[in-house]
Amino acid sequence: MLLSVVIITKNEERNIGRCLDSAKPIADEILVVDSFSSDKTREICLDKGVRFIEHQWEGYSATKNYANALATYDWILSLDADEALSEELSRSVLELKKAEQPSVAKFNRLTSYCGQWIRHCGWYPDTKIRIFNRSSANWTGFIHETLQFTDRLPVLHLKGDCLHYSYYTRQQHLRQAENFTDMAAKELYRLRKKASMVRMLLSPLAKFIQSYFLQLGFLDAVAGFNVCRISAWASYLKYKKLRSLWKNPA
Question: Any idea what the CATH number is for the domain that residue 97 is in?
Answer without folding.
Answer: 3.90.550.10
